[in-house]
């Protein structure tokens, strides 16, 4: 099942449940006819006949129906809240998985939008929408009682609907703008928190506050504009409803005088008219939240279309042929200069290839493309002949190892981190990976060994230790290919020795290694060298072919220019 199908299934389920809530709404709405009916009956029967028995009987019936209404209303509210919460709970994990499956531009925005959708489902706006059919029934009743009063109510409905439409016209673009500015301020805030080390060390509080404050102020200014309109229109609709009420009572009194209509019926009509108009009024005052919820749902739908994750995709066997880049081009944004300009290169199991070249040549970009983090703008990357985009990312990830330039860790134990957070895996696997890289002893010297928790403000491995732990994570589970981006940047000579030994063992274990490096020492450990310069492959071959007799002395950027 694709993620889109799972999302659609959850949406359908929520819609079906909401249909049931709408039915409850109609039934409970009809219960509200009790008050005007009671009023007219008391007025026309009880008072005229002075019958206490009739009054008691009518009161008991009214009591039972109104208690039923109260129960149904509570059930509807609780039910809608549950539909919203269940939708959020089920869709949130789909969204998080989907966002993380996207190359490059994953964002938390869709999770915020999901919250908006849930708020709409559980708000009082939907019930007022569900009350619309009852509203029409009430209006028809007024017409049947007296067409003149019916026309007054109809006129009121038209005016109130026009207010709702005016609200739509006045707020349509503003809601979107406000939503965008809110998302921008959220993004800035999470960026500041991720940069807190720098902010604290350099005392950049004023700059951080000012930057976020500017974005937040823009959002809040837009929000107040939106709220002003909404409140103004809500007041208009309230006033219109009150005036209609007066018109119905006044008109009714006139009819009693001129046409000798029953006064009880007239007062009952005024109550019915008021009930008939109430849902539109709630709708007008809740227009902004409804609009925001609808916009959030539209954005979620659009976002979900982009997700790639497939549940239960055919499990492809462990790759044994090769990882191949075919004329890959990467243009970071429309109109920007290409970072990669048509690179072709193949990597096979059991072979180590170094990628070298000057700073900014595109080495890391190429490495990110090989692991599927970046998507080529042109060309393709294939794993065993199949475009990596068509591989299920979870399966593909289990066959690949990757160590980015800055090794970072989840909040969790050393074992969990080495095990790629697959907490249910056998602990021996993490130990195996650590031993493969030669850092079992190092880990045993941590405060709690493999159970030492890495956390912000808690235990943090040193730069070199991070690279070695990242290396163990890259080799966890016996991957077919491992991509290492400058794995020795923070390593001392002992650490480098471990890295070289790991590469040697990996080659003999049939693992394909692709290693981006600036250090010539590593070039002695590889079978081939790919030299990148200005986004192009300048040379590709064995060390002897690419840089005959220079391996030990050569500096990568000089090599690539040679
Ligand atoms: N979004 C972007 N828009 C434009 N240029 C970008 C973008 N992201 C990265 N670049 C540029 O792409 C180029 C390649 O970056 P990359 O990190 O791949 O280089 P590198 O060869 O790994 O360099 P180093 O050895 O310094 O790590 C750099 O010049 C960088 O400034």
UniProtKB/TrEMBL annotation:
Record has Membrane as a keyword: yes
Listed InterPro entries: AAA+_ATPase, ABC1_TM_dom, ABC1_TM_sf, ABC_transporter-like_ATP-bd, ATPase_T1SS_PrtD-like, P-loop_NTPase, Type_1_exporter
A Pfam family annotated for this UniProt entry: ABC_membrane
Membrane association type: Multi-pass membrane protein
UniProt keyword list: ATP-binding, Membrane, Nucleotide-binding, Transmembrane, Transmembrane helix
SMART domains: AAA
Domain ABC transmembrane type-1 per the UniProt entry, residue ranges: 19-292
ABC transporter domain boundaries: 323-559
Domain of life: Bacteria
Transmembrane segments: 20-39, 51-72, 134-166
Localization in the cell: Cell membrane
Gene3D superfamilies assigned to the protein according to its UniProt record, in alphabetical order: ABC transporter type 1, transmembrane domain, P-loop containing nucleotide triphosphate hydrolases
Transmembrane recorded as keyword: yes
Molecular function GO labels: ATP binding
NCBIfam families with a match to the protein in the record: type_I_sec_PrtD
Protein name, as recorded: ABC transporter ATP-binding protein
Organism: Shinella yambaruensis
